[in-house]
Amino acid sequence: MARILGLHSRLRLATGVVLFVFVLGHYGNHALGLISLDAMEAGRRGFLAIWRSAPGQVLLYGSLVLHAGLALFSLLRRRTLKRTSRSDILQGVFGLAILPLLILHMIGTRGLNARYDFNDLYAYLVLSLWYDSPWDGVQQSLAVLVVWVHGVIGLHHWLHLRPWYARLHLPLFALAVLVPVLALLGFAAGAREAVRLLDDPDWVAQYRQAVVLTPEMAAWGYRLYANFINGMVILAAALAAGRAVMWIIERRRMRIAITYPNGQSVSVRPGSVTVLEASRIAGIPHAAVCGGRGRCSTCRVRITRGAGLLMQPGENERRVLKRVGAPPGVRLACQIRPTDDISVMPLLPANAGARDAAARPDFVHGSEREIAILFADLRAFTKFSEKKLPYDVVFVINQFSRHMGMAVEQAGGRIDKFIGDGVMALFGIESGAEQGAREALIAAKAMAANLAEMNASLAHDMDEPLRMGIGIHSGPAIVGEMGYANAVTVTAIGDAVNTASRLEAATKDYNVQLVVSRAVADRAGVDLDAFAADQIEVRGRSAKLDIIMVQSAADLPV
Question: What is the overall mean pLDDT for the chain?
Fold first, then answer.
């Protein structure tokens, strides 16, 4: 089943791209009317050379039939419209409206051409829609917009997860607006030119000789149109009846339970819906940036019970899970259809965005790593803030955060968090403990230099220079994304983190700027024997810890 659904998704995308290319070329042909009616006709000949060739017709009409059929299949499989995005609903409504709006146009051009070898020149097209039957012209103008919006939404769903898409979003949006506008303006310009040419007897004679539309041909076209509309009504009624029968059958079949961490449970028929659809049925917030198409990974869940009862992931799901570095037991909620009771835990907040779908390092899911942890804190800042206006306090904090953040990032570290007038940073998450320890010492030296620079720039606003204490320790810690909703960040917890915090506090006792554990110096391969050393007791540790006190971190030999 997963392989079939993956093939369905790829075919729907491929056929949609083919149809979009056809529409883009057709609209470009319309836009040539801004030049002249002759330019439109010249463009038409080149356009039809491609799309009315045998391969072009097979590709075009095969894509049209297959795309429509796959869309109906998706509609039949959908169990709920709850929490469906507005863009998905708009695309679906416009997709259903395309054929009723376009079928008369298709019969009046390609249909008559195929049956009667009718010469459907651009002059015939613009005069019939602009001059002979303006209402049909309004309908076709609406069809231009409906088809274009449907296609653009489809392309957006396909491309908006690409890293480059955000950079080109505005130019692409401008292009999406410009194409149909130029097409409609070109069509109107060509039609006005054709109407003016009706005053030229020679042109009218040539036109009537080239375009021969008999009553028999018109009657055939309108009969075919009426039959198509009747067929669509019958098909819609059959689909509605089929959905009703399926609903009655599903109500009577046995049910399974999908259980969520907060105790909520959804009862569904085995294999009938995906976990994402179950969430929507129950009104449970569940992220799905791509709308449940198996492209973005934001709907991913950890299977806490019943993982062995699920079908193995298909090719598409495996590729997406590999891209985000998902650990075992994690699946895409939009791709799994449980056939037995399972329990799931959504891994991203319901408001997760496209950024959360990007490929991510494996450590965000949680792992134990040897890292270096740095804590830094301004000294006597509470006393300083009591004498300053709130604006001044915020300004100084922001300046401190900027200077310290730059020092950490330039050294290769990661800012964990800013805590008031303090900062916590992690080093070596990906590069290893040795490199991390060296980066932490480099960052501490840069932080000292940046603080001196900051003091110099603020000297006229402060009674005394700002001072800070820095503590650095290295050891095993649990690293991963932690938090809730919008407050989810990559952080670390464990004894090594607590010890680094204690060393920062110890700078007050030793009246130095930096206290670093001997383990950091050893791992970094940096000789700190020139500085004073000591052993201290750290709460939570049975053995004393060897530390090194550095009066000014700017003196570090790194």
Answer: 86
